[in-house]
Every structure is written in C-alpha cells, then in structure tokens.
Amino acid sequence: MKKLFIILAATFLVACNSSKEKNKVKKSTSTEMTSENPKEKINDTVPYEDSVMLLGKANRKGFQMDAFKDWFNTGYADYKADSETVEQLKPLLKDVNISVFMGTWCEDSQRETPHFYKILDDADFDESKLTLITVSEEKTTPQGFEEGKNITNVPTIIFYKNEKELGRIVEYPIESLEKDMRTILSGKEYKHAYAE
C-alpha cells in the first residue's frame, strides 16, 4: 500500500489553520470511482486519530460514512438559510462553478460544510458544478489538488465563472454563508476573514 504523510495535531485545533507533528499513515481502500474518470478515486479515507479522515476528491456520499454522518446530518438539518437571500442567489449561481476545500478533521469545516450544502440545495444548485476536495491538516492532498489555490485555512469555498475566480469564503463567513455568497456572486467588494 502506498504511504502518505499527513500532519496530526498535538491538540485539537479550533482554527483549522496550523499543526506541527507529522505521522505516516496508510491509505484505506474504502473508496469509489468517479463516473467521469474510472481511475479517479473518490471518498478515499486514511486513518486519523481514533477514526479516519477523507482525503482527496470527495462528494456528499462520503459524509454518510459512520465517521462523518452525525456532524454532517445534524448540521444540515439544523441550518435554516435565509430564504430571501437564497432566492436572490438562484440566478447568481447560474454558470458558476464552486470548489470547496475542507477537512473532515476540522471543526470549522464540520460546521460550515453542511450549512453550505443546505444553501445549495435550497437554491437548486446543480451539484455537478461543485468540486469537493478534502485535505489533510497541512491542507494538502496526495494528488496535489490544492496546488496553486493558496489554501491556508479550511473550509475555503471558491467561486468561479468562466474559469475566473470571483471570490472566496475562508474558514467562516463575514455575515452569513448565503449573504457572503450573494455579495461575491453579485460582484460587490468582499474581503474574506484572512484578506489583507
């Protein structure tokens, strides 16, 4: 089996943005293949502390694994998106592609990712235009999906139109996920939490 290096935190990180200690982990075989590329693995897991983490390309099905379904399903069910803002998002989301970089080990990702999926569902977003990348604590993947994307904190949600980045939400929204999305997609000035 191929070995990967990931960083395991000495203590649980609240701000999902740094860690120090490296440990070797073995890849798991709990994966499925994508229909677009039969050789591309999706929802791959690696050992993490007393459980596992997703690492690499993933999709919503991955969040239904035992290690993740409690926080995902609870966060999804409990989130009530602002319906007026979601209605305003619907036309803005047309022709938009979204990339989400998150860590299943990260408290911020565990909070924001289910909320984000709920907003997308409420807005009737075409999920085929969503790319979900799950990263290690050092914000990397074995395939290098993060390269050139400046992923420093997770979750990082990047919005694209015509392959051009419109903006990103980093770690947590400034106002709310749906209102920050509306600001970005309507072309208004937006600075994420770590913008200089």
Could you outline the blueprint of secondary structure elements for this entry?
Blueprint: E1 3-8, E2 21-26, E3 32-33, E4 41-42, E5 45-48, E6 51-54, E7 56-58, H1 69-78, H2 83-92, E8 96-102, H3 107-122, E9 130-134, E10 156-161, E11 164-170, H4 177-185
Parallel strand pairs: 8-9
Antiparallel strand pairs: 1-2, 3-4, 5-6, 7-9, 8-10, 10-11
InterPro entries: Thioredoxin-like_sf
Protein name: Thioredoxin family protein
Description:
The chain is an alpha+beta fold and 196 residues long. The chain has a single domain (3-185), classed as Glutaredoxin (3-Layer(aba) Sandwich). The protein contains 4 helices and 11 strands, in the order E-E-E-E-E-E-E-H-H-E-H-E-E-E-H. It has helices at 69-78, 83-92, 107-122, 177-185; strands spanning 3-8, 21-26, 32-33, 41-42, 45-48, 51-54, 56-58, 96-102, 130-134, 156-161, 164-170. The strands form 4 sheets. A 5-stranded mixed β-sheet has the order 7-9-8-10-11, with helices on one face. A two-stranded antiparallel sheet has the order 1-2. Helix 1 packs across helix 3 and helix 2 packs parallel to helix 4 (177-185). The longest helix is centred in the middle third of the chain and has 16 residues, at 107-122. The radius of gyration is 16 Å and the shape is globular. The protein starts with a strand and ends in an 11-residue tail after the last helix. The relative contact order is 0.16. Mean pLDDT is 86; it is low at 1-14 and 18-31.
